[in-house]
Structures are given as C-alpha cells and as structure tokens.
Structures
1.
Amino acid sequence: MHATTIRSQRALAPVRRGFVRRNLPYLLIAPSVIMLLALIAYPLLFALRSSFYFWNLQVGPEPMAFVGLDNYVQALNAFDFRAALTNTLILSVLGTAIEFGLGLTIALVLLKALPGMNVVRALLILPTTIAPIVVGFLFRYLYDPGGGLLTWVLQSLWLPVPAEGILGSPTTALAAILFVDIWQWTPFFAIVLYASLLSVPDEIIEAARLDRASAWTILMRIKLPLIRRTATIIVMLRFMQIFNTFDTVLVLTRGGPGTSTRTLGYSLYEQGLVNFNVGLVSAQTWITVLIVNIIVALYVFFAFRNEEW
Amino acid sequence: MTFDIGNMSRRNMLKSASVAALLASSAGALVAPRRAGAEDAKTVRVLSVEDPFFFSMKAMIPEFEKETGIKVELESLSYDALQTRLVSAFVAKTSDADVIAVDQMWLGQYLDNGWIISLNDYIAKDSDIDLADFIPEVLYSSNMWRGQIATLPVAAYAQGVMYRKDIFDSFGIAAPPTKASEDWTWTKYVETLKSLEGKSFGGKPLFPTVICGSQPSPITHMFTQLSASHGANWFKSFPGAPWDFSPQLTGPAWAKSVELYRQLYKLSPPEAINYVWFDAGTRFAKGDIGMFYWWTPYFYLVKNNGYMTGKKSDVMDKYATAALPKADGVAQTVSLGGWSLGVPSSSDRQDNGYAFIKWATSKATQKKMAEWPDLNFQFSDFARKSLYEDADVKAIYPYLDVQYDMMKQGNGKITRPPVPGYTAVESVLGLTLNQLLTGSEDPKTALERTNSLFESILKGNLMIPYQKESFADTLDGAKALIGTLGKA
C-alpha cells in the first residue's frame, strides 16, 4: 500500500508540475481577479440590477416593483443634477490642474539640495494623512467669519470677504471647498512627482546643460516627457477622487448656499444614506460611473495615443 | 494507512501545521459562543446618538448594572452614522443592538418595515411603567405609529424663546411672557426684535436674533415651527384619515411664514445662512444676540461657552426663557421632537432591551440624569409630567414651567410629518428656503415650484395616490391607547 501510494505520487508529480507551470500566470493573478470581482464587479452589478427597481427603504424593506429606466429619468431630471454635475466638473478639472501645477513646483524645489528639505518632505505628507471629514471641521473653524484664521488673513490683505462668510456666499463657497482640496492633496502630487523626477538620469540633464539648454527647456523637453506616465496616472487618479467628493462638502456647506456647492458625490450620499432610496441612488451611481469612465477613457486615449498603454 | 513522516517535505509539514492551527482555532470559535452565550443573557447592547441626553444617561449606567445585574455595552454615534448603521444592520438582518435610539422621523419606517418591535405587549403587562405620567402629546408625536407604542421617550424636545434679560432691561423692552398668550404674536416678536436693530451692548454690536440657514434639516426644523404656528400643513390629509399626501405648499400660510423667516434672517448675523443647529445656540451663548427661538435643550446648552464644553458662557446668568409667539387668530402648534428608545426585532435579548428602556425612561433615572452636575447640568428634556412639578429639579432648571407649557401645545406630526419619504421632500424644502433667504425670488413662485417637486417625489415614492392602509392618527386616539395600556 505504502509503495503503491509513493509510486502513484511520483507518476502524478510531473503532470501536476506541468499544469502548474502552464497556468502559473493565471494562478498568480487569480486571487486578485477574485477579489476584484467580489469587491468591485459584484456591487456594481448589484447596483445595476437595483437601478431598474423601485426600492426605497423608507417605504419598504424589499424592492417593490420593476420600473425600467424610471430611476434614470428621475436622476437626470432631479432639481439638483445640473448644478451638481457642473460643480463636480469645476472642482475636478480645476482641482486636478492646480494641484498638479503646485505639486510639480514643490517637487522641483525639493530636488534642490537646500537645508531642511528632509523635514519639509516629512511635513508635506501630513495633510494627506488626515481624514477629509476632519479636514472639513478644521477648515470650518478657519473660515469662521467671526475670527477664523483664513477670514482674518483675507481681511488683513484687504481682500473682500462676503458678509455671510466665505462658506455662506454662493460666490465664494465652491472656491473655499476647492481650496481645502488643494491644501490637502497638493502634497500628494509633490511627493509622487518628486519621486519620479529623482529617477530621471543625471547624465541626460548634464548633457542638456552642456548644450546650454535653459532650465525651462530641460523641464519641458526632458523631465516632463520622462515622467509623463507617472504624471498621467496620478492626474487620472486624483480626477476620479475629486469627482466623488462629498465629505468636505457635507461638513463645510451641506451643498449650500442654494446648490452652489452641491456635487454628484453629495447627491449620492443624500439619496443613499439620508433618503435610503436604493433604486434611485443605484441609477445615480451608474450615471456617475459612466460619466467618469467616458472622461477617463478620452483622457487616456489622448495621453497615450502615440505609445503602447 | 501509513504516514511516512520521514518523507514529508517542509512544505507539506507547514501545510499540515496550518490546517491543524486553523482547526484548533475553529474549534475554539465554535466553543466560545456557547460559553459567551451564558454571559450574553446578562448583557444588553445599547446603540445611541450622541445628543446631550447621552452623557447623563451614560453616567447613570453603573446604577442600572447594579440594580439588574445586566451589563450594558453602550455605544454612541453621530446622527447620520447611527441611521446608516441601523439601516444597514436591519437590511442585512443582523443583530447589532438590543436597544436603539430612534428619532421620531424614523419611527414609521422602522415599525412598518418590521425593524423594531411594538412595545404594547410589554407595556400592557408592566404594572409599574406609569404610562399615564408621560405627556400624551410627546408619546403621540414621537412614539406612536398606527396604534402601536414602538418606543419610549428618553429625551423630549419642544421649542421656546430665549432672550437676554440684561439687554431687554437696558433698552427698556418689556420681557416676553412665560405663558402662551393671545397678545404674544409673531408680529409682536418681530417688532420687539426690530427695536434692537442697530443697537450695541457692552461695547459690541448687537444682532436682534439668530436663525438656522443651513439646508436641509436645520433650516427646516426652525422654519417649520413658524409655519406650523401659522397653520401651514404639508399634506392634504395627514395625520387624520384617509391619508392623502398631495402637497399643500401653495397655501397662504406658507408664503406668509417664508416672508417672516426672511425678516428674521435680515435681523440675524449674515453668516447664519450656513448655521446648523448648534451654531445658532452657541452664537446666542457668545453674547451678541438679543432673542431667538429654538429647541428646548438649548435652554440649558446656552449656559456653555461652545457646544457641550462645560465651560460657562457669558450669558449663563443673563438669559431667560419665554413662550413661543403664536400667529393672529390661529391656534398654536409647537414643534415636538427628541429621542426615544426602541427594541430591534433582530435582538435576541428583547427582555433585557425593554428592561433598559423602562429604566432609562423612568422618573427616578430621569431625575438622576437631571441632577448630574457635569457640563453645567445638562438634562431637562423630560417626557414625564411629574418631573415638571418636582421641586428639586425645578431648582436646577427654573424654566421648566415654560417648557411644559410648550410641550402641552405640541404636535410633531403636523410640524414635520414622520411619513415615509419625508427626508426627500425635506431636502427640497430646505434648499428652497435656503435660496429664498439670500435671493430675491417671490416666495409664492418658489413655493409653487417646490410644491411640484414635492408632488413628483411623492409620486415617485408611491405615496400619491397612497396605496397602503390609512390610520386615523389623532391625539385623542393616542390618549385612549395610553388609557387602555395603562389600565391593562
């Protein structure tokens, strides 16, 4: 019995090894695929199914009726959809562009071997480690019209501050939310871009300098093209993150005054976690997913059209 | 079968060890719940909101544990987080708690969906609950749905007026009355505020009043007191039967209330457009506000410099409370709200849950909560009549007569109807009101637009036409139920 077992094990071993060798790549990525399916595909498909049903937890615990595209029609015709989409696009485009510009500037400064840069690098990462909801509360006090630090700074610089306060006026509230995002996430760009710039070979820069290329030319013609892939990816990631912003909006303005700071993320929060309208929020989720993916697809297409992606 | 350990590879050995460890831990896990089960029977998990009442209730819990031998696992969350967690647990049919804090606006939804149990049977069998001691208006507004008492009130709120005695004395303004009166009207209230316009006090510019402007809930909570006082109804027929949720925002009472609220905003600090509940209260506590109306917990919260800080505010000994004004020729309706405790149907320790609720809402515990000295004495939100006549408690909270008078005029089902889908229509109303405060749009036009949005939302939520059974939900019916259950 013992001998037979060992013989058969030895006979099977090459077969098993061959199977493993042939399928090793699939086996290695299998856990990731299973995780992705469980954590991303399943919720999205569940939301897709729910979006075709009338399912409001305030009215009943289970889906009550198949309603076809009614939830999508309701979502697109909602009183706040247009304002929320416009504000979201403004925040996402401006936020990403400004954070990238400032982050790149800081990264270039960090490359200079100035005294104290190690401390600066360590401090830079701090804002990104704070939860957005905490950042929201912090800025609520900084923007306070009755003695908030930022209000005081603006007044000291003779800049006009609305009587209703920075967060109370439709003209300044969205900019105030944008500023919070820039404060928190510019360091992220700075650190990532700094790490990428470090990988640019010194010899190329030296050669360019010997050819009397200016600092601007070196940046535009050598450094940026060499870090383009990293830059493109973090721009895409931040764009998608800002597109879903809701926590700072919730703490700072609750979408007001009026609809001036309402974002798609805030509307999703309101429909899902305040109104508990599962069907409607599922439709809104899919509309948001489609908008983001169309924008990102266009962005990726234009960013990488001349190279392999 | 033989096991040749000599031929065993290191990998196989590691595998075997891992499986053995997993089995051992699983066996432990299988045994552990049974051992914990015996202890669990002597435990009650309480999930609460972190409103002012929570802190004094928490301080009293060792007494409950001593009296009953039941260990309390108390957890608190913010309003939004609590509702999200509860609904998630209910939908997933998991047992997350044995006692939960329930806002009056969630009651109908929770009971209709079978997420919490009716307490009628428990109350009927309980000879010492003293149900008749509860203020009927409170039970009706916050705890009853379709003839069931599903929760009991741990903190009941009405609305009332707070004003600065020293400022009124200084400018020779007559103090507002402590009892409701035909002469104390909203028109008179605004006139009084206008007499404070442009004035300074103690070297600081004074604002006559302060309002909540933030959407959707804070502004709706404050505005609906004004609209209810003017006789405004949200729907064609609710809470009386048959239920008809056709919106009624185009009525003159709504437009008049909006005009009045706009006037109040003009007399407030401009930044009040972004004020949530506690912003208005803490602003009064700062000392530059003459008079305002708000939920009765602010009767004691304004003693703090900041929100629940325990540090004494500048106005601590300088303010007094008064009755809410009423509208000319309209019977007063005061907004009632607050927090109650209920038992989830998923709980497997419902008896413990009821025991905790009975204890927390009892006269004795509520009195001890009121006498807890921390945070400048932070609890007078009684739903029991007897506590409004208790000399010890009245010595700490001298405004209790005013508060009780407001409670007796309360009707939470009219001011903010706790109907399915309420939050969706509140979002729209809150937004409209917020826009109207800063904009110049005609209230009538804005309200007509909001009425259409209400109708569309309510139709989308299958509320128009209403397809379920109606219930004649009246205060008299509530009193009858209290009598029946109390006598059983």
2.
Amino acid sequence: MKKIVSNLYLALIFLFLYAPIAVMIVLSFNDTTTSISNWQGFTLRHYLTLFENDALVEALVNSLVIAVLSALGASLLGTLGALGLNNVKKARGLLMNLSNLPIINPEIVTGVSLMLIFIGIFSMELGFFTVLLSHIVFNTPYVILNVMPRLHRMDRNLYEAAMDLGCHPAKAFFKVVIPEIFPGIFAGFLISLTYSFDDFIISYFTGGNFQTLSVFINNSLKKGIKPWMASMTGVIFVAVLVILIVMNFHDAKAEAATKRKNKLA
Amino acid sequence: MKRILSFVLLLAVLSALTLPMASCSGANTIVVCNWGEYMSTGADCDYDVIREFEKATGIKVKYVTTESNETLYSQMKSGAGKYDVIFPSDYMAERMISEGMLSELNYENIPNYANIMKEFKGLDYDPEEKYTVPYFWGTVGIVYNEKKLTEEDRRLAEEGKDWSLLWSKNYPDQIMMFDNPRDAFGIALKQLGYSQNTTDEAQLREAAALLGQQKFYYAMDQFFEMVPSGDLVVAAYYAGDCMSVMEENPDLKFFVPECGTNIFNDAMCIPATSKKQALAEQFINFMLTREAGKANTEYVYYSTPNSEVYGALDEELQQSEIAYPTRKENWEAFRNLPTATNDLMRELWNTVKTNNK
Amino acid sequence: MKSKKPLIPYLVWMAAFVVIPMVMVVYYAFTDSSGAFTWQNFKYIGINRQVYIDSFQVAFVSTAICLLLAYPLALMMSRMSPRAQRMMNILIMLPMWMNFILRICALEVILRPSGVLNQLLSLLGLGGNTIYRTHTAVIIGIVYNYLPFMVLPIYTVMTKISKSVIEAGQDLGCNGWRLLQKVIFPLSVPGVISGITMVFVPAASSFVISARLGGFNLIGDTIEAYYKGEIDMHAGGMLSFVLMVVIVISIAVMNHFDKDDDIVLV
C-alpha cells in the first residue's frame, strides 16, 4: 500500500515536471506557422529550419560558451575562496555571509547593480566580458558551498605528512588537497554550468549587444510563441538527455570499478 | 579525476575557439538592432534579408533584437547597447533627434530613398529629412469576432464611429487592450475627442478614468494566439497584425474608428555613436530594394512606405483597405512628450493596471 | 595550507563585483537626480505597496507548496538504491536545462484558455480551466521553475543522516511518523532552510513569469520598468534596496531557527 502511494506520488511529480516539456516537443512537430497549440498535421520542418536561423544559432553558441567559461572561472575562484576562507578564524561568519550574498540577493538586483558598475564605474562596454564576469559572480558562491564541507572533513595531517615526506608545498597541495576536494569542485562546476545556461535576468541586464539564448527568445516573443521555440526545446532536451545518460553510465562504471577494488582489498 | 579534467579542458578550448565567432565585431561588421520578428530573417522565411545583404555587399551583420522603444532608448542612453542601425518608432526617433542621439544621414549613400513615397517624407518627427528613412507604417484599429458579438454590438462595429465597442459590458475579460501606456492612453484620448499627444493633465486623468471603467485584458503578443482562437472577442491592435490573424479565422473583422486613430511610422536610423555610418547606410539602402522590401512586407504584414515595394505586392494586398487605407485628417502620429507628461502617464498607468480587477 | 593568500584575489573580486554594486544600489536609493541625499525615494514604496504585497504573497505560497511537494520526494529519494538515486537526480535536474523562457512559454501553451490542457479536458468532456492570468498561474509557474531548488538541498542533507542514528531511533521505539518527527526532520532542517532560501528569493523577485502567466506585475517587473525608458535609477534603486532588505531580514530570521551555521545549498 505504502509502495503504491509513494510510486503514485513520484509519478505525479514527474508528470508535473515533464508534461510541459513533452507538450512543447509534441507541438514542435505541428505543421503550422502561426498558432502553435492548434494541431495542423505532422512536419519536421521546424527542426530543419532551426539551424538556418543565424541569430538563434549565435545566441545558442553564446549561451554555451558563457556557461562553460563562467563555470570554469567560478570553479577556480570559488576554490581559491574556499581555501582562503577555511583558514580565516576571526571574521569568518561575516565573510561567509558576504560570499553568499549573490545567492541571497534577488537576481534582478544583482543584474541591475552589475550593469550600473560596468557602465558607471569601470566604463566597460556591455558584451561578452560583462556577461561572463556577471555569471562568474553569481556562480562562485555555489562552488564555495560545495568545496567548504570537503575542506572541513579533510584531514589536515595528510598535507603535513606529505610535506614531512619531502614534498614541495605546491606539489603536496596538488597531490593531496586537490584530489580530496575535487568532487566538490566538480559538483560546483556542474551547478554553475546549469545556472549559467538557464539564466535570463542577469544576462538581460548586462548583455548589451551580446545576446544569450534566453534574451534572444524573450525578444522574439513579440509576435507570440513561435514553432521554432518548440523545436528548440526538443533539441535542448535530446542534447541534455544524451549528455546526462553518458555521464551516468560513466559514473556507474567508475562505481563498479571501485567496488571491485574494495573487494580485492 | 584526470578524465573529468581533460573533458572540462576540452570544453574550455572548444568554447574559446568559438569565441571569435560569438563576439565578432571586425571592421567590416555592423550591428543591426531591430524588434524581434520585425524583419524577414530567421526561420520560416524564403528570403533572409541579412544573408542576402551579406552576400551582396560582403559586409557582415551582427543582428540583435530589442523589446520595445523604451528598452532601446535606455540601452542607448546608458551606453549598454552600441548599434549601427536601429528601427525606432516616430515618437522615439523624434526624442532621439532632440537629444542628439542620431547621426545625420548622407542620403547620397542611400539612392533607394527615392523609392519612398512622398507622403512619408519629412513627417513631423523628422521634418527636415535629415535623420530617418521610413521602414513600415500602419494604423491601430479594432478586430472583432463577428460571430460572438451581440446584435447591438455588431451594429456598433459596422457603423464604426468610435472606440466604444471596447467598453462593451457583454464580454467580460474578453476585450483586449494594449499593455503599454502610450497606445492604451492614445485610444482612450481619441475616444474622448482629445489629441493623443495632449499634455493636459485633466485630459490624461479623464482618459485614465475611462480606461478604469472597463476590466480589460491587457496584453501584447498573446494577441496572436487568443484572438484567432476566439478566446478574445474584441481587441485593439496594429492593423498589420490584425490582417495576419484574420487569415487564420474568417470570423474576424476589422475597422478603424471614424473618430480617429494613431498612425505609426517606424524608421531606420543610425545612432550618433556608430563608427560605421557608410556601411550602415549601405544596409539601409539594401532594405529599400524591391526584393528585401517585399520579403519584409510579406513577413511582417505591415504597410510599406516604399513605392517600388508596393508595386511588387499582390494586387489583392495593394487594394486592401486595412493595409493601405485612405488617410484621414484625424489620424495622428505620436509625438515625443515632455518628461512631466511621460511621468504622469506612467503613474496613472500604474493605478489603472493595479485597479484592473 | 594555513596561508590566507588564496583569499586575497577572492576578496578583491568580492569587493569589485559584490560589494561595490550593492553600494551603488544603496547610493541611488538615497539620492536624487542631482546626486544629493534624500529620503524622498521612499515614496516609491508607497506607490508600489500593492505590488510588494502581491510579490511576497505569491512567493510565500509558492515556497510553501514547493516545500510540501519536495520534502516527501527528497525523503523517498534518500532511501533508494544508489543507482536509483542517481537516476532521480538526473530526472530532477533535467528540466532546469530547458531554457527559462522556454519553460514559461510551455506553461503558457498549456494553461491558456484554448491551450493544451483545455483541449484535453474538452476531449474528456470536462469544463475548461480558468487558471491562466491569475495568481494561481503565476504560482504554478514559480513552483515549476524552482521545485528542483527545494528538492536537491533537502535530499543532500537527508543522505548525510547516518543510518545508525535512524536505527538508534528505531531501537528506542520510534517508528513511522514519530521517527520522521523526532529524528529525521530535525536533522534535515539545514536542508529545508537552504531550500526555502533558494526558492523564496527568486520567487519574490521573479520577473517575466508574472507578466506572461499572470498578466500583472510583481516587484521584479516593476523594478525592470523603472530601468527602462526614462531610466529612473533612483526609484529602481529604492525598490531594489527594499526588496533586498526584506529578503535579508527574512533569511536572518529563518537562520535563527537553525543551530548549525553551515548553510547547505544543493
């Protein structure tokens, strides 16, 4: 009985999460140029013409590039931040709160305030770099939050032992500390990737001529929801699904390998 | 871990490689900023004006979009957007001219300007023909679903005297009004017999009160779905867009009230910040060619001010009373309003919208 | 390892891109167009009182619904086999990769009067929904968008509750409800708090969702409007400032209930 209820619950949640995506994918095959929710017959046209749309392709590439580079930047900066914060005693609480500010701050405030300083203080031209910087700003705290617990749990003696054994501090750091906290960095990287790709508000305010996918779609809504928006959903869905499945497969293999190792030991 | 690292690095290198493509802005590239879906480019068009322009001239176009006149203005004012060609509406072009935000055009580089019909040259927003080239024009009218109107309202629509069909109490939540202050106030002011460009506070307050008498369905792009589907019965919108939805649903009819309406002109301009004026002028000139103009007109449905393009259209469209109506005296173009009036309108608009319950 | 050196670049970064921007917002909130100090801008809060009330109402309800939906889900997930857990994680993350604007459009296509939901309902001979352009539609939009932000932190915390603690609870005669109430819930509080933060903040400041699904403005839309056209940075700054203050206070109050100072996010 309990099992049925919980399965039903899961089914309902996933119906809620996936129905909108499914609807968009079904409608992406609708042979219409106007109203997309009015079924007119089957076509693949909206997929074939999707990549003819130069501005859309550019926006998609922009979003992907920003996602990867900002996730990398945030991983680097976040790791540095976490290492530093871990050694602070006095003002730790204050600094932690400060570092969480971009998460706690409403995105619209972050976006607007960054726009103000880019233009007003740094007199930068809004574009690729301002979007990249802004995405690093809101992604860095997620990396810190994922790395900190790993640093806490790490045995400090390991690092010192490595040095006692004659390791250069830098080498000890890369051989001992980094592998220990790497899963945290990687988790932060993935979260950053996701949030950056999904962002609309901050890119909207800091982008200028540089348009990410969300901004381009938002500006194209002037004449209603177009069929290409449905086929875009389909393309993203399939791409992400493939990536996630490959990753999962890889993880499972790695896990099996460690299990085998443990057994042997 | 090494595998993940190398994978991530690979991603980074790939991104870095695509970077030049993503942020190309070489000496031979111009930035064109238009409203989304207001130009024959992208999916579902046979003649992509940008690609054709690039092919014909070798100039690269970076095409970006913006949301509204107001967004365009603030992007340019704050320095957030640096464009070479923009498409502001009449009142915004006027404002940009008055604030020195536009470059004077060298019409010698735009020989196709000769194609523009006489009545669209030297309009109020640019009386000396120095800064603008007309792109599209159109009127605002009422589209209604004939089958869903009551007898009495149908008569009202057929007479077409004024905008009072919008205030009918017979279709709660099914009457659509523009979701922007300028157009909504414009209609209310016309209904009251005032100028759409009034700066008189009492008249504006009266207009706000009139808007407040109806519980409107304030919307913009939902128009394209909800009018043909029959969810909305009466809607005030741009004539070109009304024509496009009428093709989907034969029950839809359109009229421009006799008491007057707004006639809008969208223009092509070059911002004063542009450093590639000659290239931008080449683009504007290309947009005035017969082929590009025809493709744009068929894509957007708005009315062309270009005689060459007009000549190339189907006869049916040329004769259309909706797209190419005979001009009336009481049709007004929006003018740039003083800041105090804009502020007042925005404040009144906030109240109208909040009380629309 | 003890060095504080890595902190320096990070602090410089924080100062430039987190602290200074905040200072800018506050500066505009309390100055007029000539740059002189003023309290005048507080009037914008009065003008937009209703918008604030609507925003926090919608955000509160959405957050509560997210919590109610997410908690059982996170609990179930944490008890699955590692393989199933991984699968569930993927399934929950995946919708977040669909573009934000596209997700909103999808909901719009479903909810509007002649949309997909009503087409299905009428096939079944049922009456149509009238959710579109109401607060309910906006709440659905927010819950749909931010549910994963609630599930993941709670789930993360639950996987860290050690089996021995639960077994100890069971040995002491706690079962079912009591176990949940006395053992699991108290230990999952940090996750719940991060989840609430992660949903409430974006919900209260959301923009686009309300305009598209609700046809009305929430505070995010209003702030955006002030930065458009006339570019009233002072009004926009004041509204942002107040939004920020209210959110920071709510979070501080909430964190008060949490003894552990480690915030858990995702």
